[in-house]
Amino acid sequence: MATARTLQLDSVCPATRTLVEHVTSKWGVLVLIALADRPAMRWSELKREIPGVSEKMLIQTLQTLEADGLVLRTAHPVVPPHVEYSLTEPGREAHDLLAPLVRWAYDRATR
Amino acid sequence: MATARTLQLDSVCPATRTLVEHVTSKWGVLVLIALADRPAMRWSELKREIPGVSEKMLIQTLQTLEADGLVLRTAHPVVPPHVEYSLTEPGREAHDLLAPLVRWAYDRATR
DNA sequence: CAGGGTACTCACCTCCGGGTGAGTACCCCA
DNA sequence: TGGGGTACTCACCCGGAGGTGAGTACCCTG
Q1: Alpha helices, DSSP H only, in B1-111?
Q2: Contact between A4 and B37 (Cβ < 8 Å)
Q3: Mean pLDDT of all residues in A79-88
Q4: A2, A34, A54, A83: least CB-packed within 10 angstroms?
Q5: What is the CATH T-level fold of the domain A15-109, as seen in this structure?
Q6: What letter would DSSP give residue B81?
Q7: pLDDT at A87 over 90
Q8: Domain ranges, ordered by start, for chain B
């Protein structure tokens, strides 16, 4: 059943495509990178650290990645809201696979 | 100068972003995969093997990847046109970095 | 008692990746 | 002589990613 081909063309089905799009989206990449070297981050912390994100896109990206099971949202029901985001195990996997590609692109683009 | 962080947030500058977008685009992924296990392919061959590509998107994707230096276009000036496309060395690098990510997404999406 | 921080939602707009369909110039084969 | 294969270009359209700005409800601090 194993083929010579490393990856089949039909592996890139709509569901695969959607996941790849979410993970490699403009802000998806940034969120994964930002969350990768901290156990957890608050929403406002992410907003401050990711250069140029609008509040709308931050929320939207976090919600998408949470729905994909890559990011965990933990809300503490205190009087001034306190929400923390962290990578799940699959989220870390995504980051670890994405990072080399981004680094390669960075090296190429700025050579 | 080295940081604990694997990847800096500002590595994802516009130029990096553009390259990542091209490589992870819907048809960019398919073209890289298709070209990865053959020394060269004709245009019509790519069109036949990549399920669902329109002629416009095939051309457009190939031209973008060629401009990025990831794909080599070789035209033989014969009477019925004969054009071949192949991966350059950077193109192969891109494929090799992309493939694990796509495979991971496929496994997740179809688990 | 006004200003700033917390984590959002809602409405509106723009741009472009991607889709659809037609046209082209040349040749070969039936 | 017309139908199919070769490798394209051109014109038009649509949906969604991404951007902009305002509004919200509550609290603490100066």
Answers
A1: 14-24, 26-36, 43-49, 55-67, 89-109
A2: yes
A3: 91
A4: A2
A5: Arc Repressor Mutant, subunit A (1.10.10)
A6: -
A7: yes
A8: 14-109
Contacts of A33 in chain B (CB under 8 A): 7-9, 11-12
State the virtual CA torsion across A111, B6, B10, B13 in degrees, nearest 10: 50
The whole-angstrom separation of Cα B70 and Cα A33 is 25
Query: Hey, are the CB atoms on A102 and B24 less than 8 Å from each other?
Result: no
* Of A4, A9, A12, nearest in space to B34 by CA: A9
User: Is any Cβ of chain B less than 8 angstroms from the Cβ of A25?
Assistant: no
Structure tokens given for A31: 């969120």
Of A69 and B6, the one with more pLDDT: A69
Q: How far, in Å, CA of A58 to CA of B110, rounded?
A: 27
What architecture is domain B14-109?
A: Orthogonal Bundle (1.10)
pLDDT in tens, B7-56: 788 888 999 999 999 999 999 999 999 999 899 999 999 999 999 999 99
Give the three-class secondary structure for A78: coil
| A96, amino acid identity | D
